[in-house]
UniProtKB/TrEMBL annotation:
This is Reverse transcriptase domain-containing protein. Gene3D superfamilies: HIV Type 1 Reverse Transcriptase, subunit A, domain 1. GO terms for molecular function: RNA-directed DNA polymerase activity. It comes from Tanacetum cinerariifolium. Residues 1-21 are annotated as: Disordered. InterPro entries: DNA/RNA_pol_sf. It comes from the Eukaryota.
Length: 132
């Protein structure tokens, strides 16, 4: 088990001082990009159906608090970026395989069913409908 460690604050320049290069992806039709710096620096996603006054107010307030936004992992104070990133190590000749659905002991089937229903109701899991 990996223990959490307390990290000292680093003196690296924040993303505000040196904005990172980002790749903008296509957004759903109800969203659009707004930028805090110039035409391509520090992008945020806002609703497209806001009025001009609402967009201006939102961007003005957000710009005044832009240091509160973590633009990249290193901007989050006190959290080691290694803790937030995970690398899956696989062998080079790995072939993915479909695993068959397993059978459950009938004695604990109802217990598992109730637990799954609780997780579904809480929104922590979702059904996969193509499951056999």
């Amino acid at each position: 088990r990996k223990e959490l460690k307390i990290c000292e604050a680093k003196t690296d320049k924040s993303s505000i001082d040196e904005p990172p290069e980002v790749e903008l992806k296509d957004l759903p039709p109800h969203l659009e990009y707004a930028f805090f710096e110039g035409d391509d620096k520090l992008p945020v996603i806002i609703a497209k159906d806001l009025s001009v006054e609402e967009k201006t107010a939102l961007i003005t307030v957000s710009k005044s608090h832009k240091r509160a936004i973590a633009w990249k992992l290193s901007d989050i104070k006190g959290i080691d970026p290694e803790f937030c990133t995970r690398k899956i190590l696989m062998e080079e000749d790995f072939e993915p395989a479909v695993q068959h659905q397993r059978r459950v002991n009938p004695k604990i089937y109802d217990v598992i069913k109730n637990e799954v229903l609780k997780l579904l109701d809480a929104g922590l899991i979702y059904p996969i409908f193509d499951s056999p």
